[in-house]
Amino acid sequence: MNYKDKEKIVGDFYKDIDKVNDKFYDFWKEHTFLHWDWWVSLGLAIIPWVIWWKYRDKENTARFMFSAFFIIIISSWMDFIGVVSGAWYYTGKVIPSIPSYIPWDFCLFPVSMTLLMQIRPEISPFIKAIFYSALVSFIGEPFFNLIGFYTMIHWEYIYSFPIYIIFYLWADWVSKRKAFGIVTKQ
Question: What residues does each domain of the chain span?
């Protein structure tokens, strides 16, 4: 296949995607924007950061913010892959585009994870990772599924469990790099 043929075929795919995005935007504007699920999602996008700001370890704000940004990047990327591969999708979106679900990728996930890292830092990160993963995989995801914000197609809650463990441990490792000059409380 020559370059011009390939360019036309790929261009046709993008035209189809654009048409579907336009249809989804019209649906979102009519059936989600300013409806109860949109307001809940908006609250879930704002309230966690207000809580984080109030209860964060103020001496180590920068390192936890760095870890939160790391979490946001990785969770948004993984979530996007899950959505585009047809494993799950979201309703009640704050905005009808990527990231897949702002309250989860940009707020609930990074805030809850970094707050847990700050609580009882003497507890093994592995124990915290198992606790966090169980909480999110078997309570958080089913709850969001129950209220209709998260619909699994080719996914099971158990698949999330090891992923969240690895993700928590990775984010905890990022937060503890020596470059931060960690301030420890005695």
Answer: 32-180
The contacts of residue 101 (CB under 8 Å, 6+ apart) are 41, 79, 90, 93, 149, 150
Question: For 27-55, what is the HEC assignment?
Answer: HHHHHCCCCHHHHHHHHHHHHHHHHHHHH
- How many angstroms from the chain centroid is the CA of residue 176? 21
Q: What is the pTM of this model?
A: 0.85
| Per-residue CA distances from 46 to 11, 52, 105, 108, 137 (Å) | 38, 10, 13, 9, 22
Count the residues in the chain.
186
- Give the CA diameter of the chain: 67
- At 126-143, the pLDDT tens digits run 999 999 999 999 999 999
DSSP bridge pairs for 88: 152
